[in-house]
């Protein structure tokens, strides 16, 4: 890697979070990344931007990034969700019609 590894949030939504890995490379890293959320592997890849989905709204999370022999961690909180709409309540059946 050309410079020190950094990890920054790009977007924190109620049920997802997007992060950017800064390591001196534009899009793909020569080193594979591994991301752990609450101690469990949540994502692996070489892209320098990744999204974690299926998070709980209004909850705190601990994220650990491992890449190229370095580690960075960040704690983040997803915002509260204003409302959840369940389509089946309004007659949705999930058939695409």
In short:
This protein is mostly beta strands and 97 residues long. It has strands at 6-12, 16-22, 28-37, 40-47, 49-53, 60-67, 70-77.
Description:
- The structure is a single chain.
- 0% of the residues lie in helices and 55% in strands.
- With 97 residues, the chain is mainly beta.
- The chain has a four-stranded antiparallel β-sheet with strand order 4-3-6-7, with no helix packed on it.
- The termini are far apart.
- The relative contact order is 0.25.
- The model has no long low-confidence stretch (mean pLDDT 92).
What descriptive keywords fit this protein?
4-stranded antiparallel sheet; mainly beta; elongated
Question: Can you lay out the helices and strands and say which pair or pack?
Answer:
Blueprint: E1 6-12, E2 16-22, E3 28-37, E4 40-47, E5 49-53, E6 60-67, E7 70-77
Antiparallel strand pairs: 1-2, 2-5, 3-4, 3-6, 6-7
Order of helices and strands: EEEEEEE
Indicate the proportion of strand residues.
over 45%
Gross morphology = elongated
Helix content: under 10%
Mean pLDDT metric:
92
N- and C-termini, Cα separation = 50 Å
Biggest sheet: strands, sense, closure?
A: 4 strands, antiparallel
Q: Structural class of the helix and strand makeup? A: mainly beta
DSSP strand count: 7
Poorly predicted parts? none
Q: How big is the Rg?
A: 17 Å
